[in-house]
Amino acid sequence: MEFLVRQENRMPPLPAEEASRIKAAEREYAQQLRDRGILRRLWRVPGTRTAIGWYEADDATVLHEVLSGLPTFQWQTITVEALATHPQEQMLRPE
């Protein structure tokens, strides 16, 4: 299943070393998700601390497990939309 995920980061001000460590762990985890084919694309919303991601997971439970593993999960406000293929896109797919 494909999901559109909006993640608003509300991480509080932290000591520089701790914030750096958490951000590095977040980048590493995101790369692991990319390598596994779960995180397909990631965009930044300009002027905000919000990211929008395209994720693929077997189901919503698997996606929840993935998102709750984010090092910044406790500070995230996350909204998820399951995606279905539009009929127009189905017409464009080669047989």
TrEMBL record:
The keyword Isomerase applies. It comes from Sinomonas puerhi. Residues 1-88 form the Muconolactone isomerase domain. InterPro entries: Dimeric_a/b-barrel, MLI_dom, Muconolactone_d_Isoase. Belongs to the muconolactone Delta-isomerase family. It is an enzyme of class 5 (isomerase). Keywords: Aromatic hydrocarbons catabolism, Isomerase. Its EC number is 5.3.3.4. It holds the Pfam family MIase. This is Muconolactone Delta-isomerase. It catalyses: (S)-muconolactone = (4,5-dihydro-5-oxofuran-2-yl)-acetate.
